[in-house]
Design brief:
Bound molecules: S-adenosylmethionine
Order of helices and strands: EHEEEHHEHEHEHEHHEEE
Helix content: 25-40%
CATH superfamily of the largest domain: Vaccinia Virus protein VP39
Largest sheet: 7 strands, mixed
CATH architecture of the largest domain: 3-Layer(aba) Sandwich
Shape: globular
Length: 261
């Protein structure tokens, strides 16, 4: 499938360099904004996703260097997410992030010292994430060197996983009480982000990981009805823990080869 990309400034050199990082995405670049559908937008800030159905000024864009995400990355040290992963007393398990999305969680985990192998199946979401990582690397954000990412289906890789932790953060069901963010509205209409998370959990429990962690809305049922051994509660979400064996320093080593593009 080919996506429309708009590059009004025709920044061919920088755009082509960046596109080499997201080789899985076929883009037909043009200068005019289309009347309908989603389209990629290229400017001096890098890659964004826009939708003709929304205000032109709105975009889905990931920035790990400045703004809200960058502040969250710097702020988090001991929150529920990091405790759920088993980060304590210098232990920083290597993590297989099976549902990387736009990289909010993985950036926090890499920043506190975990090696992260991140996999995202939806090609546009994966492209937005990879482009943000590229820009963060270029601005010397140290944690990026601990992140490897791939556009793939985690189900295809899970049998080779032997990380300390497999982390699964499925799309939450649409909750009518809270208005979804623009990013979520656009991502929900993109296609390819909905999944069968039960299958991911089954595969993760059969992998070589020491622990499987599933993020859930705070009052949601257990994924696939599987009762976790313990839970870490956040303010609006909880993390269900399925330990397979004890986490040790051996589980901190980065994994090469599994995620190579
Ligand atoms: C809720 S989002 C993850 C958010 C992420 N934890 C963050 O902090 O930004 C879920 C993502 O998982 C991806 N996904 C679902 N099933 C997948 C699979 N089998 N393999 C890879 N990615 C998958 C979806 O495309 C979606 O982008």
């Amino acid at each position: 499938m080919s996506w429309i990309g708009v590059d009004q400034l025709c920044q061919v050199v920088s755009r082509d360099t960046a596109m080499a990082h997201i080789h899985w995405l076929s883009v037909h670049w043009q200068v005019d904004v289309p009347d309908s559908g989603h389209y990629l937008w290229w400017d001096d800030k890098g890659l964004s996703l826009k939708s003709a159905a929304f205000d032109f000024r709105s975009s889905v864009h990931v920035d790990f260097v400045e703004g809200t995400r960058a502040r969250r990355i710097r702020a988090v040290t001991g929150e529920a997410l990091t405790r759920a992963m088993g980060c304590q007393k210098g232990l920083r398990p290597a993590i297989f992030d099976a549902t990387a999305g736009l990289g909010g969680d993985l950036s926090v985990l890499a920043n506190i010292g975990c090696a992260v192998s991140a996999v995202e199946r939806q090609p546009v979401v994966a492209a937005l994430l990879r482009d943000a990582l590229r820009r963060a690397e270029n601005s010397d954000t140290g944690w990026c060197e601990r992140v490897q990412m791939k556009c793939a289906d985690s189900l295809d890789l899970m049998s080779h996983v032997s990380h300390g932790v497999v982390y699964i953060d499925p799309m939450f069901p649409k909750d009518r009480k809270t208005a979804p963010s623009l990013s979520m509205q656009v991502l929900h209409t993109l296609g390819g982000t909905t999944e069968k998370p039960e299958r991911l959990l089954d595969a993760a429990l059969d992998s070589g990981a020491a622990r499987v962690v599933v993020k859930r809305p705070i009052k949601a049922d257990f994924l696939a009805g599987r009762v976790p051994s313990s839970q870490v509660m956040g303010k609006t979400v909880r993390f269900d823990l399925y330990p397979r064996r004890k986490l040790t320093d051996e589980d901190s080593h980065p994994h090469q080869g599994l995620i190579d593009g």
